[in-house]
Known about the structure:
By secondary structure, this protein is of the alpha/beta class. Helix content is about 50%, strand content about 20%. α9 crosses α12 (about 300-310).
Amino acid sequence: MRTFHINLKGTAxxxxxxxxxxxxxxxxxxDLPWLKAGGSLIFTDSNVFALYQRKIESLALxxxxxxxxxxxxxEQTLFSLLKAMAEHGLxxxxxxxxxxxxxxxxxxxxxxxxxxxxISCIQVPTTLLAQVDSSVxxxxxxxxxxxxxxxxxxxxxxxxxxxxxxxxxxxxxxxxCGLGEIVKxxxxxxxxxxxxxxxxxxLFDLEFLAEIVPENIQIxxxxxxxxxxxxxxxxxxxxxxxxxxxxxxxxxxxxxxECVLLGLLYESYLARRHLETDExxxxxxxxxxxxxxxxxxxxIDVEGAARLALLDKKNTKGDAVTLAVPVKKGEFxxxxxxxxxxxxxxxxxxxxxx
Length: 354
Ligand SMILES: NC(=O)c1ccc[n+]([C@@H]2O[C@H](COP(=O)([O-])OP(=O)(O)OC[C@H]3O[C@@H](n4cnc5c(N)ncnc54)[C@H](O)[C@@H]3O)[C@@H](O)[C@H]2O)c1
Ligand SMILES: [Zn+2]
């Protein structure tokens, strides 16, 4: 068992992250007296409920199940959940337990932040991505009006319980998706990078993943602690994401993690062109990315992606695109390119990558 305490700079809030096995059959059972005393509700999705129904029901807490999938990360789901919380009589002292992947975590966290102006949320992330990324840091959201994560809030979870036993039922596609964020963390952290390189043939091995989840949580937690509301440093977590998000909108067949890896790869080539970089390191990073990716790199619609990257307001100034790019082991830099250069260079890079 490993435990991390996150104290958030400038606030009195703190989160406790516990990495341990058997969260459903042990940790939550141990917590039941105080969970029941304040009144608690488990929020999960249809896939997780089907897989873990017996253990969930053995907790004898009320359960609200949303349909699985990003397309249900909506205001309808949010308000149905808030209604269930009201109908079950949740109070200020109650806890919402969000048991699922990033979608459940984001919707559950937002509902907890809104209900009675904020009640405590316990995150029990069940995907690799949710354990190493979305459950840590307190960002919550729903998609709205066709825009991803448009409505949201910062609401730090009281506890995060990360249990590697959930990976046993995860499809390979979801493991690969989580590995996208793990490789991003490795691009910010030299020891993790070396560990992934040394274990390149074990990246999909569940025991290896269980071993590296805590250090990934620690990497994210340290960044979040210093910049809880994303004013500066936390933007380094956008590594690979500006180009990655744009690719995600054009390539519906790819997962978020695969798009992040493609974004990281293209952005590493942009870095080589414009900044002082460590060539040998960026070569190793490319090897790592190619080990995880299952798609063809040359089939990507980078022209369409470049147009969409410009529309991403968070990353643009006038007609320029701002990127966080890898440069040296454990180091990133901010690169600003005109839209015209960005679009042209992505196409040129693709022809060299084919
Ligand atoms: N809040 C943040 O900081 C943050 C960061 C990154 C991503 N996100 C959000 O997270 C979401 C993506 O998260 P995700 O990749 O976990 O997606 P997800 O929640 O949709 O889960 C992926 C799929 O795996 C299933 N699943 C979950 N746990 C399972 C298990 N143990 N066994 C088998 N199947 C299981 C789900 O039902 C779903 O079908 C996106 O909405 C994204 O915006 C948020
Ligand atoms: Zn991401």
